[in-house]
Design a protein that fits this description.
With about 200 residues, the chain is mainly α. The radius of gyration is 18 Å and the shape is globular. The two termini are about 35 Å apart. The protein has 2 domains: about 55 residues, Homeodomain-like (Arc Repressor Mutant, subunit A), CATH 1.10.10; about 120 residues, Tetracycline Repressor, domain 2 (Orthogonal Bundle), CATH 1.10.357.10. The protein is built from 10 helices and no strands.
């Protein structure tokens, strides 16, 4: 089940790819619906497969672990993240672009999006999902650090790029339990912006 705004596909998919994508979406949608209704730990894989009208073998071909059922668009997530830096408006800093991405794609529960809020509560209330989703986000650290280096003119392995990438990906999780999550994210990125501005002015 997608909980993000996805970029437009680069090219039309063939019939086989469309069928595969539709099956994957049906499985994920069925899983999230059941998880929201009854709780993650109380729903079995066979129930999800039956709800999606597929075999458990087919389910595992698309989702090798149960946790993956709630976070099924990792490549799209990374594409949006990297595009936020590469395609930022003229004059916007890299930390500012990452802040805007975080506010738009990871803090929608704070904007009255009830569906996203319910999804966030499911993830936050389930240790296995919470740890899995955060690990997924942090897997983007190296790719994000590389784009930061490219956009800032720093060496590819500059530790400052990786540090900014890591903290930018961590900030929304840290802010999640704050009484005003959006302001907490803005404050965290303000700190990142200040330090980055000293290191790489106008970037």
């Amino acid at each position: 089940m997608s909980q993000i705004d996805l970029p437009a596909p680069a090219a039309p998919m063939g019939r086989r790819e469309r069928k595969k994508a539709a099956t994957r979406k049906a499985i994920s949608d069925a899983a999230v619906r059941l998880f929201l209704e009854r709780g993650y730990d109380d729903v079995g894989i066979r129930e999800i497969a039956d709800a999606a009208d597929v075999s458990t073998t087919t389910l595992f071909k698309h989702f090798p672990v149960k946790e993956a059922l709630v976070f099924d668009e990792e490549a799209d997530q990374e594409a949006l993240l990297l595009a936020a830096v590469r395609e930022r408006p003229p004059g916007e800093s890299i930390p500012g672009a990452l802040r805007d991405h975080a506010l738009r794609h990871r803090m929608r529960f704070a904007d009255g999006d009830t569906d996203f809020a319910a999804f966030s509560d499911l993830v936050d209330g389930t240790p296995a999902l919470r740890d899995y989703v955060q690990a997924i986000w942090l897997r983007h650290t190296d790719a994000l650090a590389q784009v930061i280096a490219e956009e800032s003119g720093l060496p590819a392995h500059d530790p400052a790029c990786k540090a900014l990438a890591h903290f930018a990906l961590e900030a929304p999780r840290i802010a999640r339990d704050h009484e005003d999550p959006r302001q907490a994210v803005i404050r965290a990125f303000g700190l990142l912006e200040g330090g980055w501005g000293v290191l790489v002015p106008n970037r």
